[in-house]
Amino acid sequence: MLVALLATSACSPTPNEQEVDTTAADRGMQGPDAGQPPIPVEPDGGIGDGAGPPKGLPSDGDAQQEPSAFAQTFPAAIRGKWRETDGAAVTKAQCDGYQQDNIGKVLTIREDGYSFFETGGKFISVSDRAPGHIRALFDTTYADEPTRDELEFRVDPVAKTLTVRNFDTGERSTTTYRRCPG
């Protein structure tokens, strides 16, 4: 009996120990939503409300979208260095745009524009675009003289040439280029 009395007294608080109700403090630390069940998380990281992925992402994670038909960038097949030619293959030496015989004959096409020796153009608008073709209006301002050209760039994968057509009145022309050796 003495053992039972000692066992129960060991579990009882001593006069120096005071019981403190921490329920209110615990609730304050957990925030106002502490009593609510957690929001489920979907495999895509969404919050489980059935909403699709964030805007701008394809609904299928594997799907990669091509730029729109009016994207103001040159298609990858057109980008690079080209040299004006009458049809013959070009050499690396002929692609040095700083050599006297090559000035104005070497065309460099980047994603956002094109350049010759000291001139070039940046996109204003695109009217037609496909993997090996683009027709666009370019800002060709040079030496503070504002100018524009409507040009079409078209790659012929069989002949391995690039044809550039200028549609501007007074400047109508067609020029053929070959890709410079890498």
Question: How would you describe this protein?
Answer:
The chain has 182 residues and is mainly β. It has a domain at 80-179. It is 10% helix and 29% strand. It contains two helices and eight strands, in the order ααββββββββ. The protein has helices spanning 2-11, 23-30; strands spanning 80-84, 106-109, 113-115, 120-130, 133-139, 148-156, 161-166, 173-179. The protein has an eight-stranded antiparallel β-barrel with strand order 1-2-3-4-5-6-7-8. A hairpin with a 4-residue loop joins β6 (148-156) and β7. The longest helix is centred in the N-terminal third of the chain and has 10 residues, at 2-11. It is globular and about 80 Å long. The termini are far apart.
Give the averaged pLDDT, no decimals: 76
Strand content: 25-35%
Radius of gyration: 36 Å
Give the class from helix and strand content and strand pairing.
mainly beta
How far is it from the N-terminal to the C-terminal residue, by CA? 99 Å
Give a count of the beta strands, DSSP E runs of length 2 or more: 8
Major sheet size, sense and barrel closure? 8 strands, antiparallel, barrel
Kindly report the spatial arrangement of strands forming the biggest sheet. 1-2-3-4-5-6-7-8
What is the element string, with H for helices and E for strands? HHEEEEEEEE
Number of helices: 2
Low-confidence stretches: 1-9, 56-66
Helix content: under 10%
Shape annotation:
globular
